[in-house]
Known about the structure:
Elements: H1 7-13, E1 27-30, E2 39-41, H2 65-78, E3 82-87, H3 97-110, E4 115-120, H4 125-134, E5 139-143, H5 149-155, E6 156-161, E7 164-166, H6 168-188, E8 192-199, H7 208-217, E9 222-227, H8 244-255, E10 272-273
Parallel strand pairs: 1-3, 3-4, 4-5, 5-8, 8-9
Antiparallel strand pairs: 1-10, 2-6, 6-7
Helix pairs in contact: 2-3, 4-6, 5-6
The structure holds FE(8)-S(7) cluster (CLF) and iron/sulfur cluster (SF4).
Residues 37, 39-41, 44, 46, 57, 89, 91-92, 121 line the site of iron/sulfur cluster.
Amino acid sequence: FPEETTMDTILKTAKHPCYSECAHDYARMHIPVAPRCNISCNYCNRRYDCLHESRPGVTSEVLTPEGAYKKYLLVKDKLPNLKVIGIAGPGDALANFEETKEAIKLIKEDDPELTICISTNGLMLPEYAQELVELGVRHVTITINAIDPKIGALIYKWFHYQGKVLSGEEGAKILLDNQLEGLKFLSSKGVLCKVNIVMIKGLNDHHIPEVVNKVKEHGAFMTNIMPLIPAEGSEFEEMPLVSNKELNELRDRCSLDLKQMYHCKQCRADAIGQLSQDISIEFRGTKTDQGD
Ligand code: CLF
Ligand code: SF4
């Protein structure tokens, strides 16, 4: 654990099903309050109405902070083991910071003991990391796929940053600098940062051990190497699949340097329940939004 991590955060981490494999009996709820994104990953194809697909970026609905709060009240009644509220899209939590902030405040007012977990591409971390700490967020996931802007330029199509649209190595360099700055800052405040890395065969797979070492230097608590899902309609639709063997070999190799996650389920942006059992379908279309 980073030096600044409090005992309270350590105890909560023991009940966080993503951060602690033995916390599999506890549930998380993703609230899909963040529809917009400020970058374009070549593997992304966000869809909003897909009931049978499970992967990041997919959700059946986008909720306002109030709608998410109402849905949370329904879910917490049914799930006494609910410990974590996550904001993981369907876009980027920090590209929709007002909504993210409002939703966190509403839920924290109801139950200050819940763990709030944020997932972001990291572009806006230098701007919002301090506020996240003030909001009581102690678990942040940053997706960092490359520490070489040349490789980053192959993974991202464009970046919207400070009123400009950037692309190529220039944009990839800004993204990387912001990710590492945010990671270092958050870790120095005792926030447990998990770095997600999408393993893309032939593109960043050989580079991943370097990514792991670099994020470790910047205070990352663990990394989660995930296989590319070549989503239909995305730029990477035709890219090769990564086998479980290749994935686990890379994780094993990287585990010599830093704690690795082996049990990620590549959840939807509206997933609910234990990691092994997404029950979000039971709560869909419950008319919680738009203030009825
Ligand atoms: Fe959600 Fe992510 Fe928080 Fe977990 S998911 S925001 S850290 S509460 Fe978990 Fe799902 Fe894998 Fe993410 S299994 S995709 S790692
Ligand atoms: Fe899609 Fe997430 Fe990448 Fe944004 S950061 S383009 S939502 S995968």
